[in-house]
């Protein structure tokens, strides 16, 4: 079974369209018309086109049952900021504020023609008024994990040794070291983003596909067959090496 996946988008519509084009070309070349395509989350923040990215994926998912979109920590922060106001949300790490340069939420608001630099309460009120309810409902309905083939897809990772059904939902969008540093087999190949890597990296028990689109890097698309992985390029498939 072939499964496609695309890494963290972070408001880059042009990169997303190019990644979709590479998936379409691979479908045509390898006859994989029924293969699902999973977006690993972090649709918004940092890049210039978050509103358009959401609108694009809403349209695609509505008409194409092969399309799956997961939620990431930035998508969750965006919704929480809209729901609870400009103050900190206890579900987010204390060092992360949504409209800080670190989180990049200001770029998302700007994509909806909201000036993020005004008084916090006024910015929040304007954002709630301008951001379509359909966009908010779409993000709120996104799952935190998805199984397909031999893979488990999740934005950040999982707590090793715990069934995905029993995971803390916050770990699925925020976890780093406890997952990244654990070499144990998770039963499925865990395909994740969240922690940027220079190139798509196969660690045998997990596959990291966030290649830093938010920071000027590429938005990577991969084809997965069993535990074999291929990076999709303009020239076709390039095998992703596994650890020796």
UniProtKB/TrEMBL annotation:
One cellular component term from this protein's GO annotations in UniProt: cytoplasm
SUPFAM superfamilies: Metallo-dependent phosphatases
GO molecular function per UniProt: bis(5'-nucleosyl)-tetraphosphatase (symmetrical) activity; phosphatase activity
One BP annotation, GO: RNA decapping
Residue ranges of domain Calcineurin-like phosphoesterase in the record: 1-198
Name of the protein in question: Serine/threonine protein phosphatase family protein
Originating species: Roseicyclus elongatus DSM 19469
